[in-house]
Amino acid sequence: MQDELFSPTIQERPAPGRPPWRPESILYPAVFGGPLAAATLGVLNGRRLGLAGHRLLVVGAAGLVGFGGRLAVSAAVDGNSAVRLAGMVTGALVWLAVLFFQRAPFRVYSYRGGEPASLVGPGFAAGIGFGVLEAVLILVLVR
Amino acid sequence: MTAPSPVLARAEALLLTDRPQEALAELSRLPADEAVEVPATLLRCAALGQLDRWSEVVEAASAGLAAAGPHPDLLWHLGRAEHRLGRPQVAERALLDGLAQAPHDVDLLCTYADVCAANGQVDKAAKLVERAAAVEPEAPIVYATRIQVAYNRGDDRAAERISREFVAAHPENPAAHALLGGTSAARGRLDTAYEGYRQAAASRPTEQAFAESALELRIARHPLMLPIRPVLRFGPLKVWLGVILVVFGLRAAGLPTISAVLGLLWLLLCVYSWIVPPLVRRWLRRNWH
Fold first, then answer.
1. What does the pLDDT read at residue B33?
2. Among B85, B100, B115, where does a domain finish?
3. Count of A–B CB contacts within 8 Å?
4. What pLDDT is attached to residue B1?
5. Which of B79-85's residues contact partners 24+ apart within 8 Å by CB, and which partners?
6. B268 is in which domain, residue-wise?
7. Residue B76, domain member (yes or no)
8. Do A92 and B240 touch (CB under 8 A)?
9. Which residue of chain A comes nearest to B232, CA vs CA?
């Protein structure tokens, strides 16, 4: 009897590329920077973790949908605090999508003894850069 | 079959009491022909494995296989050692050769599951360990592998639940306590985690991994980490959403000053939680060795 579980499936490991960031840490730039920062870091980190292309697409799409939601709130409501709140909430939601795809691959990576890369520099860059970009886009498009 | 030689019996007793070095010394007194037989080779592999001397396990197991032909237990030692040495494909080959002879061997199933789990094939790993659990649900290696697979899948809740079952079934097993420590720490239950590591380290003080875990926990319990404890306990998302709701709720309730102060404090805490933990970790690590 040929048992499917007993057929070899281990592939040669791809040459180690750049180490990934801890997916949990992306929450911080996601909340401060908004959905686009979350999605960008999520896609970059997904590539470092070797995720399949369609998963990266879902993360990217989640970022665009999140930003669309924030635009809609900004158009509908007056006042800056609602715009900021919408950025935080949509950023956190996009981070949830990132975490959904990346938690298990990252654990496998650490189980093999891999160390995460530091997110401090890229996190601040993405948080501030995309935060400003989203603010400008909101001003130009709906205000 | 003749009765096992007294040398083998002594070596086995030494192994069971965590004295692998003395077991090896005992085994070296065997006559040459007996030393390459399967029972002696298995004990030698087990002793070398306890000492983390994996390349010597590979040598010993290969010599035993060359002398005795394919044997599932020797193939298990070979596969486990190759896995530890970071050669998953060689490990897979050895373990599959073993499983071809002994498809219900719990050690082979669990170690192969571990190889798969370490190489991103967590679903296959889960199926393999399920099969082992159907054969011997109470075996320590089955519990340990189920916990590792659940953790690698990102299912912390299941990992913690199985750890509790493991401790309940084997309260004397230090690995059970260490795993409960690890999975509790992942869910932010630092006091249960500490208790788990304490018991594990107490019953096996020489084990490097337990000491390492205990150090990680010392980092998490360090006074400087106290402000971050709620985030560890409840998970970042709940804490974040809670803070956002409170900050914007206060503003909506007409208390913008308190809301602004709270927001600022939270911002400072975020920066703190980014900067301080790596420093504490580096500091304690440097003073640990």
1. 82
2. B85
3. 77
4. 45
5. B79/B108, B79/B111, B79/B112, B79/B115, B80/B49, B80/B111, B81/B45, B81/B49, B81/B54, B81/B55, B81/B57, B82/B58, B83/B111, B83/B114, B83/B115, B83/B118, B84/B52, B84/B54, B85/B54, B85/B55, B85/B58
6. 234-289
7. yes
8. yes
9. A24
Residue of B nearest to A49 (CA): B120
B137: its two tokens: 């649900």
Domain boundary among B33, B51, B85: B85
Of B119, B122, B128, the CB nearest to A5: B128
User: Of B119, B124, B270, which is closest to A5 when you measure between CB atoms?
Assistant: B124
- The answer to whether position B130 is within a domain reads no
B25 lies in some domain: yes
Q: How far is B216 from chain A (nearest CA, A)?
A: 15
Q: Which residues of chain A have pLDDT under 70?
A: 1-2, 14
**Residue B194 to residue B184: CA distance in whole angstroms:** 9
Point out the residue among A10, A32, A112 whose CB comes nearest to the CB of B92: A10
pLDDT for residue B4: 63
Number of domains in chain B: 2
pLDDT digit string (tens) for B240-286? Answer: 888 888 888 888 888 888 988 998 998 898 888 878 888 888 888 78
Query: Which of B128, B127, B131, B162 is closest to B144 using CA atoms?
Result: B162
- Which residues in chain B show pLDDT less than 50? 1
Of the partner residues B99, B120, B244, the one whose CB lies closest to the CB of residue A88 = B244
ipTM of the complex: 0.81
Q: Is the minimum CB–CB distance between A78 and chain B shorter than 8 Å?
A: no
Query: For an interface test with B, which of A108, A115, A118, A128 has the most B Cβ atoms less than 10 Å from its Cβ?
Result: A108
Contact call for residues B7 and B26 (beta carbons, < 8 A): yes
Beta bridge partners of A21: A117
User: What are the pLDDT digits (tens) for B64-88?
Assistant: 999 988 999 999 999 999 999 989 9
